[in-house]
Amino acid sequence: MRSHHAHVFGAAAMAVSLVVGAIPAAAKVDFGKSGEKIALVVGYQPYYTESWSGVVNNGKQFWKKYLPEGSTVEFQVGLQGSVIVNAMTGEKQHIGYMGDMPAIASTFRNLADRGGTDIRIVGIAGTSKQQCNIFLVRNDAPKFANGVDAVKWMDGKITSAPHGACTDRFARLAFDKAGIKPQSYLNQNIEVITTNFRAGKLDAAAIWEPTATKIEIAGLARRVASGEDFDALDGAIIVMLNDLISQRPDVVEAWMEGELDAQLFLADLNNAGEVAKMAESQTEQIDKKVLWGAMYGSDVAPGTVKLQLDFIVTDRVQSLLNDATAFLYSLPKKPAAAAKIREGGVDDSIARKVLEKRGLKSPLGVIKAQPMSAYKD
Q: Which CATH number fits domain 8-127+234-374: 3.30.1330.20, 3.40.50.2300, 3.40.190.10, 3.20.20.70?
């Protein structure tokens, strides 16, 4: 089903500002007994390419193979990760797909002053250095030898990113590593960034997929740098209510079985066209070629990793979580209530069980960028 929010791709899909603040927790949900059918509500982000295993699981309905007979799943589009967190805090959604920043912030929601709802990271939808970590520049900017030179050019320029998002973390890291200071570093959402590129009022901006590819293909700006140039990782995370985890480990295991199938499907380049078609059917006003390019294509950096399907919290992923948590804790509003994720905030034990049962290891697959000419309608 298509979303009714045509503007959603322009929202700050990874922003965590709405995560801060107390929201009264809902009464504890009774998820039933092991083996009983269940009605799940899943918040997911088809407008955030890195979390597209949710799009695939929705489109292919892999979950039906594993959940108890008679179970139902309602997929609800989240305008941004923080919206999904807020819905989960009220226990209106039970499983969430989101960026690393809101996922980390959600793990602190069990604190009394943050709503009292225990939400935990249970798996990884994917990681990348060029899904959220992307720099675009105005079209008349010089040609650069590499991404580092491109960021150095931003010294004294007008730049932008949605602050508090993974793009913000990346932009600040890149500015620091390049040793530069922009004239201004504005807090703007993607709609404003797009408008300002069109009007020639912006020199550079950091944004995520698929919006980066949409702006690029529309000819409004050029892609010049990514996390590949600065060894900067970003990620998409799967979170669940601890009420669900504790009451129905059978359901959690079933969901992760379907998630594994979705990630394997996503990783197979033979399925690229079908994935783009599914994404098109679950979004609005984004061309299928843009969606294909966001996940599978690049003329700027062909052969580089567009997405790694980690599934579990490996050492590499844990390092990302540690860095992102420290960044969130450094913010004035502190969406993360401590410099490290609380004990128990990450529990991928069931995902690891599923992986071992299948005889597989992390990563499940790696998607490498194909030239855009490889796209077939």
A: 3.40.190.10
